[in-house]
Amino acid sequence: MKMRWISVLMVGCLTTMAVMGCGASKENTKTGGEKTLTFWKASDATDDWYKQKIEEYNKENSGKYKVEMEIVASSGTFSYDDKVSAAVTSNSLPDIMMVDGPYVSTYAENGLIIPLDDYISQEDKEDLIPGSAQQNMYDGKLYAYSITESSVALYYNKDMMDAAGVEMRMPESPEDALTWAEYEDMAKALTHDGVVGTNIIMDKGEGMIYGLLPFYVSAGTGLISEDGTEAQGYYNNDAAYDAAEFLNELIQNGYANVDPIDNEFANQKAATMLSGSYQLANAKDWEFNWGVTYYPIKEKGAKAASPNGDWVFTVTSNSKEPEAAADFINYVCSKENSAENAKVNAKIPARVSVMEAAEEWSSYPNSIFKEQLLETSYARPRTPVYATLTSEFSDGLFDIFSGADIQETLDTGADAIDKEFKEVYGN
Question: What pLDDT does 18 receive?
Fold first, then answer.
């Protein structure tokens, strides 16, 4: 394995999600036959919940398994990439590690995590929403398991629409979503007096490919070949051009800001907003009437797609007790625990059965996100050089928004991605 993979994995690995970190893990130890497992996670709203679950798990498995969790602040001078790099070189990865979903492919290709097929039941595999299953698979094997999920849809300010005399067609399903033309026309009509018609995800980082990839998928490209080895003809084809051109039109016409102000939609400086399911928890503070509808599609009959993804559980190849590690994952990702964790974390359960049983996801507006996750969720590209791809994607879009030629920018990105793959993996 070429150690250059470390830089490939880590460049841009710090996403809009919480950053996680850790110290060197302990080797599995046995005290009276008890197997000790190390588990790393980033600090977030679920910290106390995990402490409780680990306490329960350890009590139930006393004398058999014991999980020791290390929670690390979501920011700091010794960041996730530094710590993981150090852990790889010192052979001190933990038994169980949460990773951001799109990086599963990189970890798997480099032998840092193991397949879970022998430890996860077929029933539980099939219970994952389609996008989660897609995200967690690599080379035909399941390398990760999800506990929660996310999605993105189009929020709109009803009061602003009424004031502008804008009547939006109300889609009845993800496949019936507003077309790009309808979305742009609405944004145009709502842009006036210091208010932009829409807010698209412009975080200058991982959030861009997470939130904007469905435009490319609806146009006809997943940005990379199915096996994750080639960007030429996928990243820079006509479909990619169409998607980039459409997004650029929103910016160049002034319908969206390339550098939005904070809380632009909540502060009524944007009339619509492409944003995540987490906004549902913030909506109680919005001082206007609002609604949410499905993620736009290119045109009538085009493929409907929507974002998904979250941090997932993996068992590292450093673990001497993979069966025990997987036992904990099965426990913490059970149906009951998935439901609990989603409520604590203001997210969506990753299991179909749990989502179907949850009343809060059965009615509007939450049901919009449920429908998308069940019917149109599309994971970010699965490739060992994902870090390069996501960096090229966000940097390239900003170059385009700044006036760069679209095709040249896409070609440059495809070349960079393929060059990285060939140099690191020798193909």
Answer: 30
Q: With 70 as the cut, is the pLDDT of residue 243 above it?
A: yes
Domains present along the chain, CATH in parentheses: 5-150+309-375 (3.40.190.10), 152-307+385-425 (3.40.190.10)
CA distances from 311 to 64, 136, 347, 401 (A): 27, 10, 12, 30
Q: Prior bond to 365 cis, omega within 30?
A: yes
Tell how many helices (H) and how many strands (E) occur in the chain: 17, 13
Q: What is the pTM of this model?
A: 0.92
**pLDDT surpassing 80 at residue 425:** yes
Beta strands 30-31; 141-142: pairing state: unpaired
Rounding to the nearest 10 degrees, give the CA dihedral for residues 416, 417, 418, 419.
Answer: 40
Please write the tens of the pLDDT for every residue from 217-241.
999 999 999 999 999 999 999 999 9
Residue 351: name the closest of 363, 369, 333, 368 by CA. 333
CA 317 to chain centre: 24
pLDDT band at 107 (very low <50, low <70, confident <90, very high): very high
Using alpha carbons, select from 19, 15, 72, 49 the residue that is nearest to residue 333. 49
